[in-house]
């Protein structure tokens, strides 16, 4: 799907959330080795995640994906924000005021650094007003994370051509069956 549509500051968040590909039935966090390759591909080389770090990352990703489902406005975030709080309190962060705008940076290295960057990007995007535009495709067979650039922020599918078409075709066929019965 189109990662180019995602603002640079949210690309790691989007990629981390999409490390679970429902449509292809693949998971980049299925083992510490595979997660290590994903980390290397995303700018965190030579990290060998432990089983505990992998479990922690899976928990963060799960909470992140639940949070993104709530961005459609039809799902209540419920306890997911409290779950995110629980994960965030375990990742040391600090403010940084170097060249450029003030930001948050992770204190740790490896998995903690990557998760810190994800959480920092989430906080900054929420403060800047772009966070609610990052969503999960509502097509159950897809669930791909995408950035909603539509003017009214009402996109529900990652792609109208693929997932939107699937959904509309299903609805049409259902109506046809109802009319025949």
Structure description:
- The longest helix has 21 residues, at 160-180.
- The chain is mainly alpha-helical and 181 residues long.
- The protein has a single domain (3-180), classed as Orthogonal Bundle (Jann2411-like fold).
- It has helices at residues 11-17, 32-41, 51-69, 80-88, 110-128, 160-180; strands at residues 20-21, 26-27, 93-96, 103-106, 134-136, 145-147.
- It has a two-stranded antiparallel sheet with strand order 1-2. It has a two-stranded antiparallel ribbon with strand order 3-4. It has a two-stranded antiparallel ribbon with strand order 5-6.
- It is 47% helix and 10% strand.
Average pLDDT level: 90
Task: Tell me the major beta sheet.
Answer: 2 strands, antiparallel
Outline type: globular
Say which CATH homologous superfamily is assigned: Jann2411-like domain
Instruction: Give the helix/strand class.
Output: mainly alpha
What is the second-level CATH architecture? Orthogonal Bundle
> Under the CATH scheme, which class?
Mainly Alpha
Total count of strands: 6
Proportion of strand residues: 5-15%
**CATH fold field value:** Jann2411-like fold
* Strand order in the largest sheet: 1-2
Span between N and C termini? 38 Å
Binned, the helix content reads 40-55%
Helix and strand string, N-terminal first?
HEEHHHEEHEEH
> What is the CA-based Rg, rounded?
18 Å
Query: pLDDT below 50 for ≥5 consecutive residues: which ranges?
Result: none
- Structural domains: how many: 1
């Amino acid at each position: 799907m189109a990662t180019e549509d995602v603002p640079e500051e949210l690309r790691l968040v989007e990629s981390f959330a999409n490390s679970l590909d429902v449509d292809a039935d693949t998971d980049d966090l299925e083992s510490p080795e595979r997660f290590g390759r994903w980390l290397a591909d995303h700018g965190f080389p030579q990290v060998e995640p432990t089983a505990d770090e992998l479990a922690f990352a899976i928990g963060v990703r799960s909470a992140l994906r639940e949070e993104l489902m709530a961005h459609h406005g039809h799902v209540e975030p419920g306890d997911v924000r409290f779950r995110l709080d629980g994960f965030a309190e375990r990742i040391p962060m600090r403010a940084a005021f170097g060249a450029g705008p003030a930001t948050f940076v992770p204190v740790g290295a490896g998995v903690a650094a990557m998760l810190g960057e994800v959480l920092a990007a989430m906080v900054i995007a929420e403060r800047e007003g772009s966070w609610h535009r990052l969503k999960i495709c509502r097509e159950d067979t897809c669930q791909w994370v995408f950035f909603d650039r539509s003017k009214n922020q009402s996109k529900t599918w990652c792609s109208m051509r693929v997932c939107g078409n699937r959904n509309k075709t299903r609805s049409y066929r259902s109506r046809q069956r109802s009319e025949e019965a």
